Amino acid sequence: MENQFQQFFPFGTQYHRAPTPLESEWEGDLKEIAATGYTHVQFRPQWRCHERIRGVYDFSELKRLCDMAHKYHLRVIIKPQLENAPDWVFTELGGSRIGFGGNPLPPIAHAAFYVGGWWPCFDNPAVAKAAEKFTEKLARQFKDHPALWFFNSWNEPRSRPLGQCQCEHSVRSYRDYLRGKFDTVEKLNKAYGKAWTSFDTIFPPQSHSDYTELYLWRQWASESVASHIEYSTAGLRRGAPGKFVMCHVGQCSYTQDPACDTSNDFLNCQKVDWYGCSFSVELLPKNILERHKPLALGAWMYRVDSNYWCQEFYTNYSCWHEEADPEYVEQVLWMALASGCRGLTFWQYRSERIGEESNGWGMREMDGSATPRSERCDKVASLLKSWGADFAKTSPTPRKVAVLFDCATDLLMRIQDMNSRLDRIWDIQENCNYSYKFSTAGSAFILRQCGYAVDFVTPEQDLSDYQLVVASCWEFVRPEAIPALRDYVEKGGTLLVEYPFACRDERTWVTLKRPAYGLESLTGCKEKHRLALKSDRSAMLTFANRQQDEAVFCKTELQVCGGEAIARWEDGKTAAVLNHVGKGVVYTCGGSVSMAIGKRCTMKAIPEIYRQAFSAAGLPISESPFWIQERISETDCYRFVFNQTETEQELLISEGFQLLYVSNGNTVSDARLVLGAHSTAVLWKKNK
Fold it and tell me: Can you give the pTM of this predicted structure?
């Protein structure tokens, strides 16, 4: 499989999810897909359709689809849809989920799960066994089919809504999870200051307000989700030994609500050969941070798995939605490719005809005819086919700057930002607009505006490859992450910290000393007094050169202990500190400048504290109307240039590069190019 990926870049589309498209439409569509230059199609066999009667399997429709794909030399990805469970899963196996207050979550039909049976509890051992048996039967049936390429074991694994699942099987699984972590209930009680009688008296939380219990329960939920992927994958591998298996998440950890839409990328990707995600970004962006999100999302996924796939790329919304500008859709497509994905699959070929997805999602019209957006996608397919192995062998260039993203802090700060009455936890709805998401998105955007492609790093990761690392609102620092942080700075790295930082311990409790764990020796300061800022309030910090930055979330007075005060709040108290540690430096800000920009979704100027950090790291700032990303191999360099503005911009083509493609622009000379608003240019040079 790895050698195959060296020969071409996988670029295909989801095609069939029963009952659409109709069989009379298959041949014309698949012939067109192949002729246009797409490399593969994905079929989604739904469990409910193929085992309506328990133990009786009917894969005849899927076989006809695979036969037709093979006729036109299209590779096939088979993605079993287990969430569409047969009726007998609920009537014979007791597969229904239970929500808050013991309220049943009965199976439903949904436009995306039209055939019904959505979805059972996969913590139920009988359901899990039946699902695994189905994936094994499916794999065994198609393992020798000449069109089969590989399997996708789970579509968008997740635990949602917040209340799922509280059936007896999930509760038992949660208790077993706690037993595995703490061995005895006495150790659990001591660790968190609780007073449970036994593991068997522990139930899922009915309130978020103590933080700890909901934090533990959603940590369990992410482990549970990963276990579902594991047994589906096990069935596929038994049925088709040697075939590759992937899965792809709906909302990756960087973009998800980790409490109400729980799934952990790092746990999930361990269960499969490679990982992927649905590319969930705004196609009608309202601000520049939404325009930057595709690059940030791609950077995160590359951190999770350097072989990741963009497995659901959307060119449209659902249900007769306002259509996106094809120019911008194409730019987002190029951003996904530039970010390092190893393959891309559109969702979907034809627009849907069903329910609340009517006229939604597809590249093409419901009747299969072309649209302006499909014409853009077809053009990219043709280009990638012509670039072949040269492009397929490339990877993103190494980055010099990174943003630290901590999944544990993300979950804790999401819980912290919840708002409901004590007995109304079921009122809490999925929401990705909260403090930690604002801060990390803001950090990544600022670094990009300084002229740098961005990586994401995680706690305990070796940071030595980066000249500058930003840790904004890393509230939940664990002791095991500290050695890598110290080592990075002592050996010459530049670290920018924005408050809150290291303020809670492993129990989720606020620590008495902040930062905790002796980290004041790293920051050169400690928290003296913190004033929480209301969501519509901010505070200004002023530097010696009279430059000012706006901070939100908190206004923390810092007490210098070894460092140097470099900025002050309006009342004259210390707002930012510089500390030299070994060969490196640490900048600490008593509020979050990144969150201010992430919330406002605009930036008038590069924040001064970032300017100083870049200078200390020896990195020049290059403000430009273009965002630039590169993919390289030993022999080739592809440079993607994205005009981020609403107006035409002139690009000077660097020496050695030649223009391969421009989506909307005019060549002025061999060295000059005018790019239209939100257009994209691809440049190429041969590496020596």
Answer: 0.97
